[in-house]
Design goal:
The complex is a heterodimer of chains A (about 60) and B (about 475). Chain A has one helix spanning about 30-35; strands at about 15, 25, 40, 45, 55. Chain A is α+β, with helices and mostly antiparallel strands and about 60 residues long. Chain B is built from 12 helices and 26 strands. In chain B, helix 8 (about 305-320) crosses helix 9. The chains are: A alpha+beta (about 60), B alpha+beta (about 475). The interface between A and B is medium-sized, with 22 and 20 residues.
């Protein structure tokens, strides 16, 4: 991560559903809770953040 | 009695009623997008909403009710939408106390479904945009109360229909409803809640007035309507939570303590998708409605969503800035800037006054930038605003940046870390004339005479310009 004030680094965090591979936009605050399941908007599967197939931007 | 259907009768010619079934899964919202692209803003009344399973709902869907700024203003009794800032600023002054009516005189009580009979899936809630977590109630006015004072609060919050009796409920951490919820939860108690859908648009806009805490919205909503709002005790919570007798639908329930679940993603007012976030849920106990209820939807991120709240912001910002600037004459929160930008208009401001006013206005939490314009600029036309910025601003002199101010919620460009942002104020006013009656010390703007304009209008009178190159 750059420490420049002027670099555009983005701010979105993404999770990938372990069941259907769908990527969706999640807030870091939700991932930080760890005990609250994410819910895939595509297949409705609930899953723990640790079980995400992938996380980007965390 | 003044309610949603009496208003629809008033604006009958401004309603588009498609004859064919239209799906609640994106198709109704797509209609709004297509119409917005053509600058057409009628209300949309879908007689045959097609549900996700392909069946046709008995309950019609109304949407796009607020997309027209002109119509929204007229619903409040404001003849010219450009006067909404002052009118909204004075809403509290014209408050009218609500009255309580008997349940037998409450149309919203014509059908009462409690316990097992209560089923959220009976509502034709829309799944508006690609990527939304599911079907959302988008025009639900969420009512809670402060357990310390008993004073109720009300705000529109997005509500994800997760099952027959379960809603995800987006509550901004700083919202007054969240303050109420936290108080109940601190005692280990569920937070009582009622959600009403559908009423005269003046009530819905008055209910969104920016008030202090704790402060009830009912009297301001009545003032906006011009008559006392008729309330009835909710079935589940009695007179601790009142609901509008003339609403279309009421959903009642509780927010169980410390039950936090994932909610979203949802396409938001910014025009970008808001992420999945932790939020409370509502366990539904009861649904009441009219026997021929109309389901009111609000197209998220569209003018339908932005116009009423932006007009409320205009009133609040006018009040803030006017305290330090008597030369402030108007405020516009343009749909193009979502809720992040405000245009302030001045009539001969004294040196420094536009800056003072912008400093007051920028304290409004949602704003990221404010702009000051003279009274020769039509602040309701973005092209004129951009022209003034392009031709009247020198950045070393007219741009002010303020660091460490509160974050605008759901700003898609907000920094990934940190809790504050830098806001900007841009002074696009001209320097004052040396003396009253003398020209300002700047180049005059191009113009043609009023006579020439009138002559041109006469030449074009009656000519159909559709099909001409744009």
């Amino acid at each position: 991560m750059s420490d420049s004030l002027f670099d555009k680094t983005g701010n979105a965090t993404w999770a990938q559903c372990p069941s259907c591979d769908y990527w969706f936009h999640v807030a870091p605050a939700l991932l930080a809770l760890e005990t609250v399941d994410l819910i895939c908007p595509d297949c409705a599967k609930p899953f723990a953040p640790a079980d995400a197939k992938a996380l980007i931007g965390k | 009695m003044t309610d949603l259907r009496s208003y629809l009768n008033e604006i009958d010619n401004a309603i588009f009623r498609p004859d064919q079934p239209v799906s609640v899964v994106q198709e109704i919202t797509a209609l709004q997008h297509v119409m917005a692209a053509k600058s057409a803003n009628p209300a949309i009344f879908v007689r045959q909403p097609k549900l996700a399973d392909g069946s046709i709902s008995d309950m019609p869907v109304l949407t796009n009710l607020f997309a027209s700024r002109d119509l929204a203003a007229k619903a409040l009794g404001i003849d010219d939408h450009r006067e909404s800032a002052k009118a909204m600023a004075n809403l509290s002054a014209s408050a009218i106390d609500p009255i309580v009516v008997d349940a037998a005189d409450a149309p919203v009580r014509e059908i009462v479904e409690e316990g097992a009979a209560a089923n959220l899936l009976s509502l034709p809630a829309l799944r508006q945009h690609d990527g939304d977590a599911g079907h959302y109630v988008t025009c639900g006015h969420v009512v809670t109360y402060d357990p310390d004072t008993g004073i109720d609060n009300m705000g529109i919050q997005r509500l994800w229909v997760r099952g027959e009796k379960l809603l995800g409920c987006y509550m901004l951490e700083t919202s007054h409803n969240m303050l109420n919820l936290r108080k109940f939860w601190a005692k280990g108690e569920p937070c009582p809640v009622a959600i009403w859908v559908g009423h005269h648009p003046a009530v819905e806009m008055g209910a969104q007035a920016k008030l202090g805490y704790p402060e009830s919205h009912w009297d301001v909503a009545g003032g906006a309507l011009g008559e006392a709002l008729r309330l009835v005790p909710s079935i589940t919570h009695g007179d601790k939570i009142m609901v509008p007798a003339d609403a279309e639908i009421v959903i009642e329930g509780f927010l169980p303590p410390n039950r936090i679940e994932a909610e979203g993603p949802f396409a938001e007012f910014s025009g970008y998708q808001g992420p999945q976030i932790p939020n409370p849920v509502v366990e539904v106990t009861c649904i009441t409605r009219r026997s021929d209820a109309i389901y009111h939807d609000c197209g998220s991120g569209l003018a339908d969503h932005l116009v009423p709240d932006n007009m409320g912001m205009e009133g609040a910002i006018y009040n803030l800035a006017r305290q330090v600037s008597p030369s402030l004459i108007n405020v516009h929160v343009p749909v193009s800037g979502r809720r992040f930008q405000a245009y302030l208009q001045f009539k001969d401001p004294k040196p420094g006054e536009a800056r003072d006013a912008m400093m007051a206005a920028i304290s409004f939490r949602r704003l990221k930038a404010v702009y000051a314009f003279d009274d020769d600029i039509n602040i309701f036309d973005d092209r004129e605003a951009m022209w003034a910025i392009a031709t009247r601003v020198q950045w070393h002199r007219d741009l002010m940046k303020l660091d460490g101010l509160t974050l605008a919620p759901l700003d898609p460009s907000a920094p990934a870390t940190g809790r504050t942002i830098t806001k900007a104020a841009i002074d696009a006013t001209l320097p004052p004339a040396p003396k009253p009656g003398q020209p300002k010390p700047v180049a005059p703007r191009n113009r043609v005479s009023d006579d020439a304009l009138a002559a041109a209008e006469a030449v074009l009178d009656g000519i159909d310009m559709t099909g001409w190159p744009s």
